[in-house]
Prior knowledge:
Elements: H1 29-36, E1 47-51, E2 55-56, E3 64-68, E4 81-83, E5 105-108, E6 117-121, E7 126-130, E8 140-144, E9 146-151, E10 160-164, E11 171-175, E12 186-188, E13 201-208, E14 217-225, E15 231-240, E16 248-252, E17 264-268, E18 277-282, E19 285-287, E20 289-291, E21 298-302, E22 316-319, E23 338-343, E24 352-359, E25 368-375, E26 382-390, E27 394-397, E28 406-412, E29 421-426, E30 439-441, E31 452-453, E32 461-462
Antiparallel strand pairs: 1-3, 1-32, 2-31, 3-4, 5-6, 6-7, 7-8, 9-10, 10-11, 11-12, 13-14, 14-15, 15-16, 17-18, 18-21, 19-20, 21-22, 23-24, 24-25, 25-26, 27-28, 28-29, 29-30
Amino acid sequence: MKRRWIAGVVLVLLLSGCGTGGEDSQQEPAHRDAVRSDFDGDGYGDLVVADSSATVDGKDSAGYAAALRGSSRGPLLKGPTVLTQNGLGLGRAGEGGAFAATGRSTTADLDGDGRADFVSQAGNNTVFVVWGSDEGLSGAARLEGSAPIAGDFDGDGQDDLVVTGTEESSARVLLGPFGREGEPRRTVPPDLTSSDPENPVATPSTAGDVTGDGKDDLLVTWSHIYGDETPVPRATVVYRGASGGKLVEGPRLKDDQGRDFFGSLATGDLNKDGFADVVAGLACEIIGEPVPPDGGSRVAVVYGGPSGQSEKLKPVRITEKTAGLPVQGPFSYCTFGSGVSVGDVHGDGYADVAFSVATGADAESDGESTVVLLRGSAGGLTVEGAQAVPGGSARMLDTNGDRAAELTVEREKPGPARGEAEVRVLRGGPGGVGPDPMLVVEEADLDLGPGISSKRWYVFGVL
């Protein structure tokens, strides 16, 4: 079977961790997201586009990121800040370093100066922090670890990081504020050891205040090891934030059928009740070969509550058969629910959910990719008022300061340029997103300079 995946959330590295991890229930989600990606402190969220597969100074898949400043008109193409590992002055990139890759990058104000910092893994066990300033991103520090996740885990108002170690099921909570050499105020080693022998691998996945106590909680995936030794997610456990940063194991989340809840995770307050909700996209499972999960491809929601999962609100499941979806099948194999992200496109204080799906494909091709946008509401996630726009992975970020997030969509260019990608920024507002982009970004717009090049079939996305 021929299958070509163009991915890239990230990046809209919308950057706030995986999904919108770390939202504070005291602040409106779109505003919090904008602040978390405001590198120059001007009040507008800055957009990061990236290609982790790019060749840099002769090293394949070394990767780059380019930051576009936000403004009252949205992201600006003029004068992007282009980042590579080689340009940080802290060690040269090797083959496959994948700087600015999906799931390995985030933003947070780690030094507490009111400007967001860009945080990205490169290689197997190194995290780089590029500091925000009045002029944008400048200066860097190097940390040990991988897969950084941002949040305020001790509730002191300072951003913290969780990084994963090289040992199985190991992680560290790095409490902010950080010094400019990258040293945290304090390091706390949480015990994330799985208590389920069937699913022994514990991996931090995302963060959000699901308990509504003003401290971000860590969502940890427990995975099973099959014959090919690849961990396959099988459960999600909430580790509650606490004073001092010592995470406390909480509930094992259950879906609408009372089974374990898992997938590609993001968080946000869908019903504006002060508790971040957990959204899981599960388009496929890799068990040797990609296969649809038991029960079919889906987007699922578990609502937050004081203990970590609401006892009042029933979990939700959106599948290919859900009535009212704005896109019709048949859907391509293993695509429904890909690239889940969360943000407030309508500016109403309710977080919305975006995901992608492909239609019209056969066994030899991928079909056309579409982004589906579902609304949050007082009753939770709903298909009422849902929208569909052409494109693959998407992220949501308020770049123009109006508190309605823009929907930033990665899309394969049509016609002779098919196989290359562009990023389209669609303005958000009370009616959702319009069909005409406020900005289209192509790699040629970024003025990458010598030494950086991409393949024709490249991953070009947004954080």
